[in-house]
Amino acid sequence: MTNLKIAETPNDLPSQEDLLSMSGLEFMQAMLRGELSAPPISGVLNYRAYSAEEGRVAFRGTPQFEYTNPMGTLHGGWYGTLLDSCMACAVMTTVPKGSFYTTLEYKINITRTIPMGMEVEAVGTIQHAGRSTGVSMGEIRGVADGKLYATGSTTCLIMKGR
């Protein structure tokens, strides 16, 4: 379990100085302990970082009616945002102190619709951690049923801070 707290104002977000003063793994673990605030998007879209170790990050979330498309099924953007978060954070766990990253591109494949109100786990795992890029893959699976709901891959750009 985590002590995650969600940023409610811009002032709640970690500063660039905070980010650059620790490795990406240290940053993620500080966020899980509640020492740094998580980004507000995780509160808006009802998902949370759950665990972080080098090369692997897991999130859990539950889609709600507010995230449906006109057909009444879960909007693909929810899958994409959750996968982007877990995959990019997996890259983050390999980023050295004094550097930061951003998503360069990502792709998702939705295999089935997640039922509203069903808890899922999204796990991102590192595939490549280099000096200037990181590549990871992700999966969304149902917590209760273990079924695969979506997969993804990402490439992140790693940059040195100033």
TrEMBL record:
Q: Where is the Thioesterase domain?
A: 71-140
Q: Which CDD domains match?
A: PaaI_thioesterase
Give the molecular function GO annotations: fatty acyl-CoA hydrolase activity
Q: List the Gene3D superfamilies hit by this protein, alphabetically.
A: Hotdog Thioesterase
Q: Does the keyword Nucleotide-binding apply?
A: no
One Pfam entry for this protein is 4HBT
Report which residue ranges the record marks as coiled coil: none
Q: Which UniProt keywords apply?
A: Hydrolase
InterPro entries given for it?
A: ACOT13 (IPR039298), HotDog_dom_sf (IPR029069), PAAI_dom (IPR003736), Thioestr_dom (IPR006683)
Q: Does the keyword Transmembrane apply?
A: no
Question: Of which family is this protein a member?
Answer: Belongs to the thioesterase PaaI family.
The protein in question is named Thioesterase superfamily protein
What is the taxonomic lineage of the source species? Bacteria, Pseudomonadati, Pseudomonadota, Alphaproteobacteria, Rhodobacterales
